Amino acid sequence: MNLAEYKVFFDFDNTITCVDTLDDIIERFSVNQDWVKLEQDWKAGKIGSRECLKGQLNCVRITRSNLLRYLAKIKLDPNFKPLLLYLKKQGIKPVILSDNFSPLIRFILSSHGIKGMKIYANEIRFAGEKLKLSFPHQNVSCFRCGHCKKNNLLKIGFRDKIIYIGDGLSDVCPACEADIVFAKASLAKQLKERKKRCIVFKNLGEVLGRLKKEK
User: Fold this and answer.
1) Left (φ > 0), alpha (ψ -120 to 50) or beta: where does 80 sit?
2) Tally of CA atoms within 13 A in the half-sphere of 82 that contains its CB
3) CA distance 68 to 20
4) Which of 203, 170, 210, 184 is closest to 75 using CA atoms?
5) Which of 21, 65, 66, 208 has the most CB atoms around its CB within 10 Å?
6) How many CB atoms lie within 10 A of CB 31?
7) pLDDT tens track of the chain, all 215 residues?
8) Which residues, listed in sequence order, are joined to residue 163 by a DSSP beta bridge?
9) Secondary structure letter of residue 128 according to DSSP
10) SS (H, E, C) 51-102
């Protein structure tokens, strides 16, 4: 494998982070349990993540200072920085594609000393203790995700071979377009059903080891 020929894309929640940040925020800071039914409907395919996120985060009440205090405690996979360093040595600038929100992702990464990564995600702003969402990368012809990762992946990586590293429903479409996929359990299950080959991993150390081995 000549890594210089590849563009590398990362999912964020539960791939770079050790938890699904949005799920945790919703569970911790919701003022009611309405988010539970929305989560069930999303998993059942009755609604897309855009509708789900709008409904769930409408239940959240938190100040900006309290949210940033919470985000500063989010842990990253300890292998993420070594993997970034290895990719940098290969001349690769990886891209994050997330159905989370750009300001939250940037703050978490900055808290760990990581700056300058290209991020494509949803947007969010504060209105008192409420969160206002926008979806600049949505695909209006598809209700499935708030951020159409597939569109951005194809736009950014159209001249390159693609490595995709992810976990979850929002990663299925971009993963199906990639040449090499590293998938955690939930994504791996979805891809298996679609007969899409992938390399199953539990942590990013396994991804780093595989890339070094294949070099």
Assistant:
1) alpha
2) 12
3) 16
4) 203
5) 21
6) 12
7) 788 899 999 999 999 999 999 999 999 999 999 999 999 998 888 998 899 999 999 999 999 999 999 999 999 999 999 999 999 999 999 999 999 999 999 999 999 999 999 999 999 999 999 999 999 999 988 888 999 999 999 999 988 999 999 998 899 999 999 999 999 989 999 999 999 999 999 999 999 999 998 86
8) 8, 180
9) T
10) HHHHHHHCCECCCHHHHHHHHCCCCECCCHHHHHHHHHHCCCCCEEEEEEEH
**Could you tell me which of 158, 159, 140 has the C-alpha nearest to residue 148?**
140
What whole-number distance in Å separates Cα of residue 126 and Cα of residue 60? 11
Task: Please give the single-letter amino acid code of residue 34.
Answer: D
8-state DSSP, 17:
B
State both tokens at 181: 């996929």
* DSSP for residue 3: G
